[in-house]
Amino acid sequence: MSSYISRLLKAQSASKRLISNLTQRDGKLSSLLRRLGLQWQGAAATPQQRPISTTQVQKSALIADDQLVTGIQKREMLLAKQGCEDPWGFTKVIRRGSGRENDPTVVPSAFDARLVGCLCLDDRLPKWMWIEKDEGPKRCECGHYFILKNVPPV
User: How many CA atoms lie within 13 A of 114 on its CB side?
Assistant: First the structure.
């Protein structure tokens, strides 16, 4: 045991941490270290509760969410208050129209292009295609035509 303590005294970098870990335990080794004067003089030697400071918060001091949000999230919250639960139209499926070249299915978009999936005939998976803004009607493999309609953003 004395060789361990002598090696512990010679070590410079890890000695403080090792000594603090050893002195926290109750037993013969910690009492021996205390007698040799190797007890760490920090907070680890005497375990104490850390003081916690709390401040009361008044409900009038809290700020509502609608005053903090900005940008797209604010527009979404305002639309939700007006009753529009799906401002982006994610849940709405666009049904194919007649799909002829002179009467294509209109796909709304606030951007210059949109990815569209067409469920052709008896296929299980959609056929995906990009529809561009200034292009004419785009034809799917099944023969249906689609065109992009510009709508204002949310």
Answer: 18
Write phi, then psi, for 131 (nearest 5 degrees).
Answer: -110, 125
Token pair recorded at residue 54: 């709390």
Query: Residue ranges for the binding site?
Result: 118, 120, 140, 142
Residue 17 placed within a domain: yes
Tell me which residue range forms the domain holding 6: 2-36
- Taking the whole predicted model, whether its pTM rises above 0.70 is answered as no
108 in helix, strand or coil? strand
Number of domains in the chain: 1
Q: What is the rounded distance in angstroms from the CA atom of residue 44 to the CA atom of residue 34? A: 14
CA atoms of 141 and 6, how far apart (whole Å): 84
Binding residues for Zn(2+): 118, 120, 140, 142
pLDDT single digits (tens) 110-136: 889 999 988 887 778 889 999 998 888
